[in-house]
Every structure is written in structure tokens, then in C-alpha cells.
Amino acid sequence: MNRDTAITQMQLNAVNQVGPDGTIKYDQTGTSRFQDSTGKWVETPTYTQTTTLSPQQQAIKEQTDKASLNLGSIANEQSGKIRDLLNTPFEYNNQDAENWAYDLGAQRLDPRFAADQEKLRTQLISSGIRPGTEAYRQQMDSFGQTKNDAYNQLMLNGRQQAFTEALQQRNQPINEISALMSGSQVSMPQMNQTPQTGVGGVDYTGLVNQQYQAKLANSQAQMGGLFGLLGTGLTAGIKYSDRRLKTDIRRVGRLDNGLPVYAYKMRGSNVTEIGLMADEVEQMAPEAVFEQPNGFKMVDYRIATEAA
User: Fold this and answer.
1) SS3 content of the chain, % helix, strand, coil (to 5)
2) Spatial contact of 156 and 100, defined as CB atoms under 8 Å apart
3) Closest by alpha carbon to 263, among 271, 280, 275, 245?
4) CA separation for the pair 107, 112 (Å, rounded)
């Protein structure tokens, strides 16, 4: 049953689709065989999904394939040329970079620092601080440190920039080959999600167990009523058992002392009860029957169930 459910669900969900970029089609192309748990050989259908591009997308695919082939050929040729480049370790000369940065920056910094130094010298002399004094020397030393810090920063920044440019030059051929090999992609058919039908599996084992449990419960209920009478008869006390007060009377068994046991409903009630009939108890154990002023009879179940 579950296998039938699976096949049905597959057939319901294998929906052929047609879109602007192409079609998707499902066909049963054969069967598969397997041996089930009982040893029998079972056949199940096998399906094939076929995707077909629209004429426009097919033309794009063919052109893209040609372009990809050409780009791949170029990349293959260029890859041979950079073999030597990759086999050579990457080298970088810090001193050359610092010299390059110093030569480039000094063309702008030297005139500016010369003018600033002359300006500082004039200010010191105007303030009465003459060359050769300690104050004059300290001011000039401070200016020299500022100048050195500026050149050091220039060389550090220049070295980093030169390193980055050297690395880019080494990687440029590799990046070009990667770009050539990437190519472009064809747009595959984009279909909307089709409704998916869910067919629940058959819980055969559960159904069988459910039926068995229902029958077992029904049987236990019937037997429990009879045995329950014997078990509760000792404490049931005195209760109305007049046949005239009962409906739907049917015999369901008998006690060990021979008294018949009945299932019935008291008038005005829908509850099924199990018990004895006063007229029959009176024949075997009259001491267990009591007639009330209203004319109806009651039975003392303790005496009735113990009567021989």
C-alpha cells in the first residue's frame, strides 16, 4: 500500500512545464526491479527529466560554448608564458623603494624645509637668540628632528606603495587568465514551483492493531461487567431490582449459585447496568428480598450472591 502511495505521489508531482526559456518534461523510461521482504520480485517505474532550451537560449548556448572554447585556448597559451614567473620567488627590495620615495618626495620637501629653516633663523635672531647660544642650538635641533620624522614617514609610505605596485604587477597575468577562463553562463529555464501533492502513507500495521484493541476492549468490558458484579456484590447493599422498574432487559450470564444475571436500564435512565431480578432471587433466597410500601421489591445483594 505504501509503495502504491509513493508511485501515485510521483506521478501527481511530475508536472511538465513550459516557459519562455525552455521546457521541462517527465517521461517514464523504464522500470526497476527489487526483491521485497516476502521474497517476491516487484517492479516500480523509473522516470527521466528532460530539459529543452528555447531556440533563442539554444543559440546563446552555442555561441557561449564557442566563446568559452576560444577563451580557454587563449588562457592555455598564456599560462605557459607565466610558468617562469610563478617559478621565480617574489622579491622586493626595501632600499630601492625607500630611495625611490626619497628622490620623489625630496623635490617638494627640500625647498619647503629650507624656507622654514630660514624663517626660524630670522625669528630667533629677531628675538635676541643669536647663533652659537644654547637656546639657538635647541630650536635648530627640534626643527631638524621634525624634518627627519617627515622624511622617515615619506619613505615608509613610499615603501608600502611600491610593494603594493610590485605585487599587482606580478598578479596581473594570473588575473587575466582567470578572467579568460571564467566565461559567461547560459540562462537555464526558470520555472515556477509546481503544486506538490502529498499523499499520506497507509499505516496498515496501525489499523490492524487498532481493530484488535477495539475488539479486546469490548470483550473485556462484557466480561468485566459480570465479574464486577461478583466483586461488588459484597458491598452493593440493598438496591431496587424489581423487573417492573427495568427496560431493555437481556440475559448475559449467571452466578455460581444459579441465579441469572441480566443487563438492563432503569426506567428514565440511559445507563446500562448489570444485576439480578427480585422475583427470581425471591424463589432461591426470600430473606434477601424486601417489598417497599410503594409495592416495588429490593434485593440485598450480599445475601443473594452468597445464597447456595
Assistant:
1) 55, 20, 25
2) no
3) 275
4) 9
The pLDDT tens digits of the residues spanning 245-271 come to 999 999 999 998 999 999 999 999 999
Cell readout for 114 is 629650507
**DSSP helix/strand/coil, 66:** helix
Provide the grid cell at 57: 537560449
Q: What backbone phi and psi angles, to 5 degrees, belong to 252?
A: -125, -5
CA dist 25 and 47 (Å) reads 10
275 φ, ψ to 5°? -175, -165
Q: Which residues pair with 177 in a beta bridge?
A: none
pTM for this entry: 0.34
End-to-end CA distance of the chain: 59
For the stretch 136-179, pLDDT in tens is 889 989 988 988 888 777 777 776 777 777 777 767 766 766 66
Beta strands per DSSP E along the chain:
17-19, 22-35, 41-53, 238-240, 246-254, 260-266, 272-275, 289-291, 297-300
